[in-house]
Amino acid sequence: MKRVVVIAPTFNEKGEIENLVNKVFDQSKKIPNWELYLLIVDSRSKDGTIEMVKKLQKKFSNLHLLETEKEGLGKAYLNGFKYCEEKINPYLVIQIDADGQHDPNKIPEFVKKIEQGSDFVVGTRYSQGGSIPKNWGVHRKILSIGANSVIKFGFMKLKVTEWTNGYRAIKFWLVRNAYNYLKNYSGYVFQVAFLDFAIKNNAVIGEIPIHFKERTTGISKINAFQYSSQTFLYVFKNSSFIKFVIVGLIGFAVDFSFAYLFINKLHVAKTPANMYSAEIAIFFNFMLNNFWSFKHKKIDGGFLAYLWKFITFNFVSSGSIIIQGVGLSLALKFFGDAPNSWIIYKILIIAFVIIPYSYILYNKFIWKKR
Ligand SMILES: Nc1nc2c(ncn2[C@@H]2O[C@H](COP(=O)(O)OP(=O)(O)OP(=O)(O)O)[C@@H](O)[C@H]2O)c(=O)[nH]1
Ligand SMILES: [Mg+2]
User: Whole-prediction pTM value?
Assistant: First the structure.
């Protein structure tokens, strides 16, 4: 029988722990093809959580306890994964909060989704059928919805509706592969980093809607400032989309600088000078995108592979020039030619047409999913 370990990190969760343990083991009969374990990873709770778990261990032989230092949620999970590898050897792990906000009755649904072929299943609060507590204060709503939106648009993964919730099921092969990467993320941002890793490694991502309940006991451990700053930084450093936009801006600067150099310093005629500078910018963009923005999908193969992709890249870039020309003339015709209005039109065309056009085509034809 395949083994599934539910991992619940705890820091002072005495109020809910007994309930959690009972409810998790209640699920065992609903997933008869699986051998169910529960691992509590505690970071030196002082409220009696540990004593309660030890008491419950007498009743449940598959209840494990790992005591670790207080080094953040991500670190607690990593220690839990290592423990699973060494002591249990599971096929699947399920992450769950121990404060009663995640309903263990959902465990069979997670397992089913895995059985249907997903590698990484996220319990989502932000799709139909899911919810956040109605009585959450405005600041908490902004923090959660804001963080999820920044990540979703930052990574341009519009189909993924939830990045931060910690109720998840993950096949253990993915945990093994991700371990070294995740070592760098000891706080709550670990959850974002793990899903990002899974997507970049072509894991099949599934979602199931969940209701995130209000905490009724104990206190929140989340530090809003640390959490949001780490999340923004993570997205900024790891988003291909943001890097692609930055490369576009650099390309703009390269184009202008070389045009200036050729025309004003080297006295080349304006038309060929602009063609040379545009091609230099295209080459810069191609290289920067390959070795920076899309480095996890870097072009494979030798010179010929690069040459072919570079020719394709030139085609896509020529498409941008044509779109800009046609778009601008249409805008001038339909919305008028007020002084400097072309600047607004140009910015809008770049933001809403050129950026999506190039990003989609680059992903489809040049830096394809492996
Ligand atoms: N072992 C361990 N567990 C932690 C640590 N930080 C948080 N936890 C646990 O991780 C789970 C999620 O933490 P919460 O503070 O509830 O975070 P949250 O659910 O996003 O925030 P609230 O909605 O305010 O509760 C809870 O079971 C905590 O006890 C830690 O440093 N070590
Ligand atoms: Mg909580």
Answer: 0.90
